[in-house]
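Hi F.,

I've been meaning to write this up properly since the lab meeting, where we talked about keeping a consistent format for the predictions we share between groups. The idea is simple: the sequence comes first, exactly as it goes in, then the structure tokens exactly as they come out, then a line or two of notes. No screenshots and no reformatting. I'm using this chain as the first example so we have something concrete to point to.
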Amino acid sequence: MLYSTALTALLALPGASAQLNKLAQAAGKLYFGSATDNGELTDTAYLAILSDTDEFGQITPGNAQKWQYIEPSQGTFSYDSGDVIADLAATNGQLLRCHTLSAAERGRSTPLRQ
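Output, unedited:
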């Protein structure tokens, strides 16, 4: 993702430690979070920043918990990709926020749900 790469580069700069989650909480917000996808978790610099609870108090799986990944073929369910991100959040003491658990695939309903 272009934005993740840019964010990683920006936060890796000397003196760019804004502690976004701490600032959000000081302003009365519950957390400052980030969305991520499994492929991004192989980047160690990115993972270190994402796991820093001073920066991010919450993680949202970008695609791993969407229908086409949970049930790739009818009757075959796999939560493995989503579990990786959920486990990361739990290990770090971060909140997990999910979205679009049953969103239509690319704007249309999948045959499995019709």
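Notes:
The chain has five helices and three strands.
Residues 31-104 form one domain.

If this format works for you, I'll send the rest the same way.

G.
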